[in-house]
Design a protein that fits this description.
Elements (H helix, E strand, L loop, with lengths): L4 H32 L5 H13 L3 H11 L2 H24 L5 H33 L5 H26 L5 H23 L19 H10 L1 H19 L4 H8 L4 H29 L4 H22 L8 H27 L7 H32 L4 H22 L12 H10 L2
Helix pairs in contact: 1-2, 1-4, 1-5, 1-6, 1-7, 1-10, 1-11, 2-5, 2-14, 3-5, 3-14, 4-5, 4-7, 5-14, 6-11, 6-13, 6-16, 9-14, 9-15, 10-11, 11-13, 11-16, 12-13, 12-15, 14-15
Length: 435
């Protein structure tokens, strides 16, 4: 028995909850540390990088969920751990001015918990989808859950941006506590009895191999190796702006915390629209290939980054929000074009190891995300330390990101994305006709 469309949408709610909590840690708290608390950008860069480093444990979470055959438990437990970490991270920001040393200790512990929570919950969720989603539905399931995550990020950023005006640490604490309680409750409801009635693994039919051995097997496959290199480079570019865009808006354009949080919502709203637009075009017009959409997304993202850089130097009359929304749209085009390939790769091989393979994929993406975020903030600090102005330092990093996106577009020519048609939206439409 496989997951129904209703169950897939329910699991998408969990992905939405994950995005809703994480966006506050990587955007709002990041901006508060750099602007309001005058920390070096490397500090939040290190903390966010730490939560990605911790996610290198994803393969282990996937293997545990494979063997225990109880992914719901780890989805819920991971969300609870994530909520605790989010509240501790908020508390660390609140006490920084009075007890900075204690604040840093609490921050490190908090972001470690955030990484554990995201790794346990996210990997188990994707493993459940990969294991029990019919092969023809996997690309559609990937698009649905990803869109719901982006929707959660955009909605949270927009709503929280309004709730934080006027800003105070007490108001931030209340908002984060309320959000984390809501996400845990919604996760419990969304996963309730989803696994009941699905095919049970029982005793594992495939001996458990060491993680290092499984990594070697995956890396030995030429297509997987090329795709991994492409993903690492493109995701590095994708995440480099994550920790510097809001401080850039605050320092150069003098945006308030509420405005910069809303800016993040605008960007992720663009991501949502970009992904949805590609799905509709591919379904209605059978237009484009994975390679073509990835290249357009990468090149478009590069052009928007250059526009954001130029706005800091030249008065154009065009609001920053327009370029940020455009960046989101092209990011979405790039992301949705790669999701189908990721789900297909995850479904290959022994049927009892979907969780392990999704964990390996998640670990690779986490490395790129952590590396990109840390490098972006580190470059900004280094450039400012060598007498570059604030606007020039950020502008150079945005330009470097644009170069990485263009390089990614070139690599897409030889990746496994080459000429595969994007069937995601069409698969959904075809299945709905049979309901």
């Amino acid at each position: 028995m496989t997951l129904s469309w209703v169950s897939i949408f329910r699991l998408g709610l969990v992905q939405m909850c994950l995005g809703a909590v994480v966006v506050l840690m990587t955007s709002t708290l990041n901006r508060l540390m750099v602007v309001e608390l005058a920390m070096a950008a490397t500090v939040p860069g290190f903390l966010v990088g730490l939560h990605y480093v911790v996610q290198l444990s994803r393969p282990k979470w996937g293997l545990v969920s494979d063997v225990e055959n109880n992914r719901t438990k780890w989805i819920i437990l991971g969300m609870i751990i994530l909520g605790v970490g989010a509240n501790l991270a908020t508390y660390s920001v609140k006490i920084y001015e009075t007890t900075p040393a204690l604040s840093m200790i609490v921050s490190v512990f908090a972001y470690t918990l955030i990484g554990v929570g995201v790794g346990a919950s996210g990997t188990s969720l994707l493993a459940l989808l990969a294991k029990h989603t019919a092969a023809r539905r996997r690309p559609a399931a990937a698009m649905i859950t990803w869109l719901m995550m982006i929707f959660g990020i955009a909605m949270t950023a927009g709503v929280v941006g309004q709730l934080l005006a006027p800003y105070s640490s007490e108001r931030l604490t209340q908002v984060v506590l309320g959000l984390t309680i809501l996400t845990v409750v919604l996760t419990v409801l969304a996963t309730w009895r989803v696994e009941r009635g699905l095919a049970q693994i029982g005793t594992d039919a495939h001996p458990s191999a060491p993680l290092i051995q499984e990594l070697g097997i995956v890396w030995a496959h030429p297509d997987t190796r090329r795709f991994t290199i492409f993903v690492f480079l493109s995701m590095t570019a994708y995440f480099m702006q994550e920790l510097i865009l809001e401080p850039y808006a605050g320092l150069v354009f003098l945006y308030t915390p509420s405005q910069t949080t809303s800016l993040s919502g605008i960007q992720n709203g663009g991501v949502f629209m970009g992904m949805l637009s590609v799905g509709i075009l591919a379904s209605a017009l059978n237009f484009g290939t994975l390679r073509g959409w990835v290249k357009l997304g990468c090149i478009g993202s590069a052009s928007m980054l250059l526009a954001i850089m130029a706005m800091g130097h030249i008065t154009t009359g065009i609001p920053l929000e327009a370029a940020v929304f455009g960046l989101g749209v092209f990011n979405g085009m790039f992301a949705v074009s790669a999701i189908g390939s990721m789900m297909t790769l995850a479904g290959r091989g022994p049927s009892s190891r979907e969780g392990t393979r999704m964990g390996l994929w998640g670990a690779a993406q986490a490395i790129a995300a952590g590396f990109g975020g840390l490098v972006g903030t580190l470059l900004v600090d280094m450039l400012q330390a060598t007498q570059f102005s604030t606007v020039s330092a950020y502008g150079i990093v945005f330009t470097f990101e644009a170069v990485l996106f263009i390089w990614s577009a070139i690599l897409a020519e030889s990746s496994i994305l080459s000429n595969t048609k994007l069937q995601t939206a069409r698969t959904v439409a075809g299945d709905l006709k049979n309901v």
